[in-house]
Amino acid sequence: MLLPVIMAGGSGSRLWPLSRTLYPKQFLSLTNNSTMLQETVARLEGLSHQAPFFICNEEHRFIVAEQLRQQQLSHSGIVLEPVGRNTAPAIALAALHATEKGDDPLLLVLAADHVILNQAAFVDAVNAAVPQAKAGKLVTFGIVPHAPETGYGYIRQGQAVSDTAYTVDAFVEKPDAETALQYLDSGEYYWNSGMFLFKASRYLQELEAHRPDILTACQQAMTGAHGDLDFIRLDEAAFSACPDDSVDYAVMEKTQDAVVVPMDANWSDVGSWSALWEVNAKDTQGNATRGDVLMENTTNSYIYSQSKLVATVGVDNLVVVETKDAVLIAHKDKVQDVKGIVNQLKQADRPEYLQHREVYRPWGSHDAIADGERFHVKRLTVKPGEKTATQMHYHRAEHWVVVSGTAKVRNGDKTFLVGENASTYIPIGVAHSIENPGKVPLELIEVRSGSYLGEDDVVRVEDYGVGY
Fold first, then answer.
1. 20 to 30 A Cα–Cα from 363, which one of 82, 88, 154, 267?
2. CA geometry: angle 435, 439, 440, nearest 5 deg
3. Rounded CA separation 153/159 (Å)
4. To which H or E segment does residue 403 belong?
């Protein structure tokens, strides 16, 4: 059976303000109610496969685990990368893990942040590639182009090796508009999808031949790895020393055994707001909307509302995106320049590039409601059976008001229950934690007051749970 390898790393900023460094696009619901990660797993239906193997950044680990739990999706392991080192090392980690017990599965390498609207065509292309991969070829999937796209790399096909596969004649960098049109007209070029199929052993053989330094670093990282709940933690020093390189540069452009299988599946890497507009359903005026949106004389626009009413009048070809802490208004033809805004936020050390106002934790979430000179108000949600870390603060006191559910509170040397419409007070310097012993989510309002309210005023009292 196939072993799907789902690469869920990355922290792209092209879909800011929805996508943030600590909550990037693969964890967002952009085309339906499921997230892109969940959709990637769902499209494996129709293929005979093992439980998928995931690779993600360490700071995203609980998001991945929670999104799999939400849909009761199993996995073969979740590897945590302490630092990003691109796709060649990531796939090496999966191949090493897959072969450590003597197995040699076909690795179906997929990105967690792609949209594929034609699932049947995706399944057909994968099945067509299986014989090539079994024969020792390294298969890449080329997307049949329908437009002279300048935002993708291309693959030029060579000789046919079967009815559905060709040798790879060349990998080509992103072209200008005129060259892209020539590629489209020739019928010999495909968009480079970043999806692959090959035996785990064949990938490792090619990596050893062309980038033994990457293979050695990954072997050392896996040798020093250890389990942590659902996760596989690498040897951080060994993996940090690994060179940064893509699978295209490290292996696919150097091997003599690369083949391309065409895929015409209405694919997109959703690399911009305009691309997201293209893959979403539109009204008769060409508008794609999500959330609480009202429009008057509005055409060809993408409008997204997360928390409040967004109204547009007399606009055309715009992207309008509202989140709880930011609003983006951009011309649809200029959305690639959003990265300039993100760079400005980084330079100013503003939190809006890093995370959303609502922050997710293994135990639930917290959402900032109001700020003042000496107070800060949050809404906390604690999942049934979960508990925050026990901690204390030197500069702030806290008031907790339970809105719904029942809280089991540790306050110093006392532990007691706080029900709905009741409250408790946590003085400065007192150890405390919140637990939800019930069967429904616990909702409470936290009011911080004091001379310093920063998130770094936290002292862990015991190594239990994850604080905020």
1. 82
2. 85
3. 20
4. strand 396-404
Q: Are 433 and 462 in contact (CB under 8 A)?
A: no
Q: Cα-flanking dihedrals φ and ψ of residue 159, to 5°? A: -75, 150
Give the pLDDT confidence score for residue 361 in this predicted structure.
Answer: 84
Give the pLDDT confidence score for residue 1 in this predicted structure: 81
CA distance 292 to 279: 20
Report the distance separating Cα 52 and Cα 38, nearest Å. Answer: 11
**What is the tens place of the pLDDT at every residue in 253-298?**
999 999 999 999 999 989 899 999 999 999 999 999 999 999 999 9
CA Rg, the chain, in Å?
Answer: 25
Per-residue HEC secondary structure of 195-233 comes to EEEEEHHHHHHHHHHHCHHHHHHHHHHHHCCEEECCEEE
Judge whether 320 and 17 are in contact, CB under 8 Å. Answer: no
Q: Give yes or no for a contact between 409 and 432, defined as CB atoms under 8 angstroms apart.
A: yes
Q: Residue 21 carries which side chain, given as an amino acid letter?
A: T
For residue 77, give the amino acid letter: G
Sign, Cα dihedral of 336, 338, 341, 343 = negative
CA distance linking residue 179 with residue 373, whole number of Å: 57
Residues 182, 460: Cα–Cα separation, whole Å: 61
Check residue 175 and report its DSSP letter. P
> If you ran DSSP here, which 8-state letter would residue 252 be given?
I
Contact assessment for residue 233 and residue 225, using Cβ atoms and an 8 Å cutoff: yes
Supply the pLDDT for residue 462.
66
- The H or E element that residue 236 is part of is helix 236-240
Amino acid (1-letter code) at residue 187: G
| pLDDT value of position 248 | 94
Element (H, E) at 95: helix 87-99
How is residue 129 written in tokens?
């590639």
d(CA 40, CA 56): 14
